[in-house]
Structure formats: C-alpha cells, structure tokens
Design a protein that fits this description.
Layout: H1 17-30, H2 36-48, H3 53-56, H4 65-79, H5 84-88, E1 90-93, E2 96-99, H6 112-121, E3 128-132, H7 138-146, E4 151-156, H8 159-171, E5 178-182, E6 193-198, H9 213-216, H10 232-244, E7 245-254, H11 260-269, E8 272-279, E9 285-292
Helix pairs in contact: 1-2, 1-4, 2-4, 6-7
C-alpha cells in the first residue's frame, strides 16, 4: 500500500482518524471495493477496539501505533478482496452474531428468507429441527432463537464447519438445544424431524471461478459447487426427505435464481408436495417449502 493513495490530499493531520479513513477510503475505492468509506470505518473501529460511532465525530483523534499497525494489516487483506466478514471474524445474521471462517460460507441476508419461511411453516412448538449443510449454523440457530421449545441437529461434511457451528450455538446461548456433527448429508442420521432446513451448494460448477473474487478466491468451493447443473445436492437431499420428515413435517430449501421449477420436479419425483415458495427482498424465489404427500 503506497503512502500517497489516489484521490488527492487528505484534510486531517497525519496520524489521526480522519487521515487514516481518508487514505484507506481512497485505496479501497481504487481497488473497486463498494462503500469504501464505510469499510474503512469498520476496519479502523475494529483495529482500535471502539464502536463506529466513536470515530464519526472525532476526525482529529490520534490513532496509536499498535491499532495503526493492526489497521494496516487488515486493510491489506481487504485490498486483496478477502471478505470483510473473514477479516472481522464475525457476521450478523437474523438477530445473531456468528463467528465465521474460511471453512464456511458467510451468512447472507437472502438466507433469512429461509428462516422466515421455516418459522411460518413449523408445525409444532416442541419441534425437532435438522439443518443439512449447516455451515456456520445460521439457519438452525436463527430458528431455535425464535422457538424456545425446539431442539436442532446440524450436519456438515466439514468437521471444522461443524465445530464452528457448535461454537456459534454457545456464543448465542443456544448450546443446550443444538448438536452438530460431521457427515455426508443425512447418511449418518436416524429418526424423523418436524423441520428440515438446507442451503445447499447450487452454483453451476463452471460458474464458480467467475464469481466475484471475495467468493471465488476465499469461500469454500465445496459449499458453492452444485455440480454440472447446480442440482447435485438437491438430488441427494430430496431423495432423503421422505425418510426424514414426520407425517406433518416440512422442509425449506434455499434456491438459486431460476431453480424453483427444476427443484420442484425433483421433489415431485420423490413424492413430496410443494407447499409454497417465498421470494427474497429482490423478488428472487429463494425458499421452497416441501412436505409429505
């Protein structure tokens, strides 16, 4: 990182909050990072151990050497298009604060549509919930946070992801109602569940390298790659659902854009009923709701 970023001189004295934010914002803008000023403020607040609001009205506040060094290291990572959530080490989802790492996908706001559909569809209060491909545990933990009588199991192929989801359960006071294990989808499970959740890999394999660099270079490809047609994981999950669901249970699957029809056909072939589909805030059909016929 050069000492003279593009965009002109910064008005605040060197070594102050304003100067750090100005220079960092210029570097981030030059690297085609969206919202460069906001991201600079997030990084500097983290480096200094303060809330963002503490920086807004204090442009001439000095930045001590140790926070300045932390900020420079974090900024270099962001300029290399490492996701902000990985740099900060956590991400908000629903009402939760979740630890994240390169072992898992970063929870996204679109997936909250799955939580909304699940809460509207969950048939009984004291429910058993299963989350297949749990990652950070975000879907399962969000549902459990709203249903205090429910208990959940999360499964992920990655032992590191399953361990991280367990930490997130404890982090959010849900450790007593959630269990996480490493496994290949539902292969190691017995018993039935009132609700099955999943945000499976659904990106076409050939499209993964062309995703934005924050995703293609840093998030785990096993959690993105849906096979040649993007439906590989859905085939596995849908085939297992008749043996996983209680008689009045339901499943809510996250969809990629334009996948409703294809996944619905798979569900019909497995003798499952389509109970509805919920769109996200961008109008994309995002959460497919299935049940037993």
């Amino acid at each position: 990182m050069s000492e003279s970023p593009p965009g002109g001189a910064c008005p605040d004295p060197a070594g102050t909050v304003g100067a750090f934010l100005c220079r960092a914002g210029q570097h981030l803008r030059a690297a085609a990072i969206e919202n460069p000023r906001l991201e600079a403020r997030l990084l500097l607040a983290e480096a200094m151990g303060v809330e963002q609001g503490a920086l807004l009205g204090s442009p001439r506040r000095p930045v001590p050497p140790e926070p300045a060094a932390r900020f420079a290291a974090m900024l270099r990572r962001r300029l290399a298009h490492e996701p902000m959530a990985f740099i900060l080490g956590h991400q908000g989802f629903w009402t939760l604060d979740l630890e994240v790492s390169p072992d898992t996908l970063i929870p996204r706001a679109d997936s909250e549509t799955v939580v909304e559909a699940a809460l509207a569809s969950l048939p009984v209060p004291a429910a058993r919930v299963l989350d297949l491909g749990t990652g950070t545990g975000c879907l399962l933990l969000a549902v459990l946070s709203e249903r205090p009588d429910a208990f959940g199991v999360g499964v992920d192929l990655s032992p590191a992801a399953a361990a991280l989801a367990g930490r997130n359960a404890r982090r959010n006071g849900l450790g007593g109602r959630a269990a996480f294990l490493a496994g290949d989808w539902a292969g190691a499970l017995a018993g039935r569940f009132d609700l099955v959740l999943s945000n499976p890999p659904y990106i076409l394999r050939e499209s993964v390298p062309g995703l934005m660099p924050e995703v293609a270079l840093h998030e785990p490809h096993r959690a993105l790659d849906g096979g040649e047609d993007g439906l590989e994981a859905y085939r596995r999950i849908v085939a297992a659902l008749p043996d996983l669901l209680t008689p009045h249970g339901c499943a809510v699957l996250e969809l990629g854009q334009g996948q409703r029809e294809a996944v619905s056909l798979l569900a019909g072939s497995a003798q499952l009923a389509i109970r509805g589909c919920r769109a996200d805030l961008n109008g994309i059909e995002r959460a497919l709701i299935l049940g037993r016929q």
